[in-house]
Amino acid sequence: EVQLVESGGGLVQAGGSLRLSCAASGFSEDDYTIGWFRQDPGKERQGVSCMSSRDGSTYYADSVKGRFTVSSDNAKNTVYLQMNSLKPEDTATYYCAAGSDFITPYFYCSGYGLQRSSWGQGTQVTVSS
Prior knowledge:
The protein has 1 helix and 11 strands.
């Protein structure tokens, strides 16, 4: 059973930084796609950044491009989301999801394959103005 555990959320002032971590266990596949999604109450879920383990390709939503960076540490089975220059509109609960289907990061962040993915419990990010 795949388990994902997010951490690193918190309260930060606008312009600040946070690094989210997603620790994965139980993965038996070498190929997987992993993504960071966020959702605020009353708003639709948004794919923020996704990455393929096959070739390291990444996708970023326009709203975070140039500010957020996704990376992985395979030795620690952990994926990170470095978030810089945070804005109040980045406030949301952030979730990581991972699936063993080969789906390009763009399509994964767009929602393809998520029904077959494992999800973490989420971590709250609050950016004050």
